[in-house]
Amino acid sequence: MQGAARSCSRPVFLCYTSWLSLSLPFKYQLMMSEHQRHLITSALPYANGALHLGHLAGAYLPADIYARYLRLKGEDVAFVCGSDEHGAAITIRAKKEGVSPREIIDKYHRLNKETFERLGISFDIYHRTSDPLHYQTAQEIFLKLYEKGDEFEERETEQYFDEEYGQFLADRYITGTCPKCGHEEAYGDQCEKCGSALSPLELINPRSTLSGKKPTLRKTKHWYFRLDKHEAWLREWIGEGLLDGHFHHDPKSWKKHVVGQCMSWLDGRLIPRAITRDLDWGIPVPLPEAEGKVLYVWFDAPIGYISATRQWAKEQGKNWEDYWKGENARIVHFIGKDNIVFHCIVFPAVLKAHGEYQLPVNVPANQFLNFEGRKFSKSRGWGIEQHEYLEAFKDFPNKEDALRYALLRCMPENRDSDFHWDEFAEYHDKDLADKLGNFVHRVLVLTNKYFEGKVPQSKPQAAFSEKMLALARRWAAEIEAFSFRPAGQAFMELCEQGNIYLQENAPWNLWKQNPDDPRIAECMNDALQLTALLSIVAAPFIPFTAEKMRRLLQLPPLAKGDWKQALGKLKAGENLLPEGHQTGKPEILFAKIYDRKDDSRLKIIQAQKARLQAILEEEKKGQAPELKPEVSFEDFTKLDLRTGTIVAAEKIPKANKLLKLEVDLGFEKRRVVAGIATHYKPEDLIGQRVVLLANLKPRKLRGVESQGMLLMADDAEGKPGFVSPPKDWPDGFPLR
User: Fold this and answer.
1) What is the dotted CATH code of the domain comprising 633-735?
2) φ, ψ for residue 693 (rounded to 5)?
3) CA 339 → CA 62, 123, 482, 547, distances in Å?
4) Which of 53, 379, 382, 407 has the fewest CB atoms in 10 Å of its CB?
5) Rounded Cα–Cα distance for residues 590 and 12 (Å)
6) Of all helices (H) and strands (E), which one includes residue 689?
7) Over the stretch 408-436, which tens digit does the pLDDT of each residue have?
8) What span, in angstroms and rounded, lies between the C-alpha atoms of 717 and 631?
């Protein structure tokens, strides 16, 4: 994606449609030119808990920006989402709280739906997978695949069973040591550290996340989806953009980490995947011999996009199939990187096997957002949930857009990023309050002072208009390329250019010299036209502020096609605000956080920082951490731990976190790949004493074979530190 983003941002003065015509095959140009129906989805949040800011930055804010932009462009858009309400996690939570699963899902469906609405996430429908229409849709798709005869296979297998809880365990409720990289918290379906696909039986020292004990194996019968049958066309579709021999999408427009993760799965070979589970909460498998079994949530949940579209279309009097099966349907899934495989491999394979559905043209998955240098952790209280933010900032003016803009600025589009309260305040004051708010306020104040609030008579100045048009086109091109951070930068550059233009022309000085100077009208007309443009360009990012700007300009609320209409006027050299149009009285858009006269907003930020500091202080008191499950002495003696010294270190190309190290063990040298590049420079590691796990099975990371693993520990700030032996111990010394 980074390459795609850069390729559309360099030709600043070239509109996006022109850029497409130069870079895409003719067949795709033809498809793009026809009437399209855009189906936009955001990952269905699991209805057993509240969502934090990382979720918002990952799958919901980018999708909302894209949907709002397409509506402004005049496109036919359906933006759907809803609650994922089945699976073992909900039944587990219900058991722990002594309530029914229905009470759990109702609580969190309502909470998340209301929170999204308050934050301006403009879903056309927020559905739920417990709805009867979803049951019907999921069962229909299952039966269609079942009737084909070769998409499923029946298996009697041994699966893990938690004796204490009396139930079979879903893959995600079994953890253990990854057999490929040694990560001790791998899940039964995937290791999140190395990205390898796993089965629960592959895990070393498996344990139930319910009881914490080692599960037993019991026989059970299930249906498996033949994912392996679809490997060849999936590789062609993802890697080359071809589907059934025809051009489907531009593969270069997909983010590199999305394609990379998919190819890693495909290179590891696909295997049949269980499509049913032994649970009492979920969609019943619609077969007579499947009593007591439900559809596995990985199969059930993505179909929620389809059932949500069906419900929305029913309410709107539309044909839902136009958005999923029509030739002009353009489907885009917005997700986090932990859902890439399901949306790029598993779900597309199900749709292709069905035979009637279109596949997504893009899955612009974001990476993870951290919080003040650490991962979000509900158990430690590290982070803040969306509804908690709204409550804590209830007295903070324009809190919704302040958060949306801060998350836009740190959105993890191509790599993991971090949210900091200090940066939140900086983005708010320097960008929103100064560059945008100050410009709009000055324009309206001066217009009221010099022209009684009316747009003065004057033609747009060509040079200024061309510069604004170029930036606006860049804004549009970046959004269409799913590069939302660069699009936000283009928006802010428009604000900066407005301030520069006012400062350079200084109409207040001209007024002092001659109130009738025509240059005053020229300057204020240009500034007002830019303000009108900003009320449109701001809308995908900060919709509440955009609507306030419209009110201040006494313009109607934004409607479908307003950007398309504005672009036409800009290209024709016409005004967006007509001569004589009456504007309103100026108001402050964003009251500064760092304000000498009013520190109320600063105190809200300081309270959040103090809360985090208290957590750090508590951790420093040395409270006993939760220990991992016991291991036997025999297990421990299998580890061959050796002292060593790093004698060479270098970065691995195109791997931001990885370093290739050479460790001298005295009797031989080992090559080790370590994910510490964000914390250590290669030149600083030469001579570092280390402890190496020397008998770990080698495995390749980014094409480099790692022949061991270093022992390290994270400090209170999350920075890894080496476990070092005494200086007088020789290299290769065994630890026991």
Assistant:
1) 2.40.50.140
2) -80, 100
3) 16, 20, 18, 34
4) 379
5) 30
6) strand 689-693
7) 999 999 999 999 999 999 999 999 999 99
8) 29
